């Protein structure tokens, strides 16, 4: 019997959930707020709606898959906390997957003609001239680790330099174009929950699960609080 998997994507401005049975996508629920983050308000609403539409209870699931980063600090914390809160009472395993790898798979979905010799540069905005990035081949196979990339110092990722065709996917790509003239922009800014499905199925097959108690977001760099707002004192 095919595994029933709940997928949660909260690493970006998109708040998204999906439920799949094996390779079959049963339901997707989500929305995008390009100007802010709606995860605290919307995630549990979408979880309830998706389960109801699929006519499932949490206990009917076989696993929960969650994007653990890099990405929005607050979004990742909310997504990971929700996954742990659902998994622990029911003894469900958790699959933790990379939000950059999900973006690469979104590029493969959008451009199915990509060849293994092509390169996908997945990049998420990390403010100013920095991105979180990683390079994959044209079929979504990882070629580099997820790392912060300062575009002023490294405008072209070295792992992508050897290919004639390099496509960029994610909301960090646009600001890299000036320093990377040959980069082809894929018009996909954010991954959806469904883009984690192949990673979740692979992990299920190999029993590659995360420890529920110790699972934490993969921020890649330390959180720094912003400047006080609304006239609060800077203490």
Specify the helix fraction band. Answer: 10-25%
Work out the helix count. 4
Percent strand: 25-35%
First-last Cα distance: 57 Å
Counted up, domains total 2
Q: Would you state the CATH class of the largest domain?
A: Alpha Beta
Verbal overview:
The chain is α/β, with parallel strands linked by helices. The chain has 2 domains: 4-99 and 192-206, ATPase, nucleotide binding domain (Nucleotidyltransferase, domain 5); 100-185, Nucleotidyltransferase, domain 5, CATH 3.30.420. The chain has helices at 39-54, 73-90, 99-110, 197-206, and strands spanning 4-9, 14-21, 24-32, 63-69, 94-98, 119-125, 130-137, 147-150, 166-169, 184-185. The strands form 2 sheets. Strands 3-2-1-4-5 form a 5-stranded mixed β-sheet, sandwiched between helices. Strands 8-7-6-9-10 form a 5-stranded mixed β-sheet, covered by helices on one side. It is globular, with a radius of gyration of 18 Å. The chain starts with a strand and ends in a 29-residue tail after the last helix.
Report a brief summary of the structure.
The protein has 235 residues and is α/β, with parallel strands linked by helices. It has 2 domains: 4-99 and 192-206, 2-Layer Sandwich (Nucleotidyltransferase, domain 5), CATH 3.30.420; 100-185, Nucleotidyltransferase, domain 5, CATH 3.30.420.
């Amino acid at each position: 019997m095919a595994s029933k998997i709940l997928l949660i994507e909260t690493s970006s401005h998109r708040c998204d959930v999906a439920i799949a049975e094996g390779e079959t996508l049963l339901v997707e629920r989500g929305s995008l707020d390009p100007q802010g983050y709606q995860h605290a308000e919307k995630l549990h609403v979408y979880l309830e709606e998706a389960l109801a539409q699929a006519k499932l209870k949490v206990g009917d699931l076989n696993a929960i898959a969650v994007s653990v980063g890099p990405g929005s600090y607050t979004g990742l914390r909310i997504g990971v906390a929700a996954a742990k809160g659902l998994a622990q009472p029911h003894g469900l395993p958790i699959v933790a997957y990379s939000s950059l790898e999900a973006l690469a798979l979104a590029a493969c979905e959008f451009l199915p003609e990509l060849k293994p010799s092509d390169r996908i540069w997945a990049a998420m905005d990390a403010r100013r001239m920095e991105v979180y990035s990683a390079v994959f081949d044209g079929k979504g196979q990882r070629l580099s680790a997820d790392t912060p990339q300062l575009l002023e110092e490294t405008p072209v990722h070295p792992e992508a330099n050897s290919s004639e065709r390099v496509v960029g996917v994610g909301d960090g790509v646009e600001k890299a174009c000036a320093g990377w003239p040959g980069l082809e922009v894929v018009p996909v800014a954010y991954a959806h929950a469904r883009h984690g499905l192949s990673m979740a199925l692979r992990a299920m097959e190999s029993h590659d699960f995360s420890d529920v108690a110790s699972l934490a977001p993969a921020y890649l760099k330390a959180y720094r609080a912003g400047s006080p707002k609304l006239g609060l004192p800077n203490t």
